[in-house]
Design goal:
- It is built from eleven helices and ten strands.
- The chain is an alpha/beta fold and 263 residues long.
- It has two domains: 198 residues, Alpha-Beta Complex (2-enoyl-CoA Hydratase, Chain A, domain 1); 48 residues, Lyase 2-enoyl-coa Hydratase, Chain  A, domain 2 (Orthogonal Bundle), CATH 1.10.12.
- The chain has a six-stranded mixed beta sheet, sandwiched between helices. A four-stranded mixed beta sheet has the order 4-6-8-9.
- A hairpin with a 4-residue loop joins strand 1 and strand 2.
- Helix 1 packs parallel to helix 3, helix 5 packs across helix 6 and helix 9 runs antiparallel to helix 10.
- The longest helix is centred in the middle third of the chain and has 18 residues.
Amino acid sequence: MTETPVLHDRRDGYSVITLNRPDKLNAFNEEQHAALREALASSGSDKECRAILLTGAGRGFCAGQDLGDRDPALLGDSPDLGRTIETFYNPLIRQIRSTDKPVICAVNGVAAGAGANIALSCDIVLAARSAKFIQAFAKIGLVPDSGGTWWLTRLLGEARAKALAMTAAPLSAEGAAAWGLIWRAVDDDRLMDEAEALALSLARGPTHTIGLIKKAVQAASDNTLDQQLDLERELQREAGRSGDYREGVSAFLEKRPANFTGR
């Protein structure tokens, strides 16, 4: 058994969080859930950390739930999987979505079941060309969770969402990018270089404003146009009072690189 189910590496301005159960394709058990939540909370409260990069160790990003921990033969005929969702997966998705720091996901191999949907909950997703996204739930008689029905329907539409969920057909990284499910597919040997360069670039940017952008985009799916216009007004009011706005304008007028502080 891996001693450290999640690795947390602090870099200059950002952190790299790595799921670290490679012998299980980083499938989740309760220990890994707790360690990931702790790493995300630590990064979220660290003023020196201005971006978060999530990836997986070994040959896959995450195979979802470790089914050995949820075997009906051990749990009885009527296991309460809703409790597992409510206790572990839903709080994790909400934590990723609510942090005001950009969260990048580097999908380095298969992302299946909840693993796929945890990746999709991140703000920017890069995937190795060899990676695959699999809504594997139907293969074991389950419904997509961890926001799966939400991401698929809103990003792909009902027809593709139903097909991917009902058939559990693998979707390649290039297919996911072409359909708008993720941002980019990159060569396998370039994945982490590109992901870390992106994390560093965001960490050096106006991260307070990036957090406001995240809030606005996430609200847009549920808001009417009038509600979104009002939200944009209030967020722009907040952004306009930030030190980064003053620095950005000064740098533009002085024709020099901006030195953003995230404040």
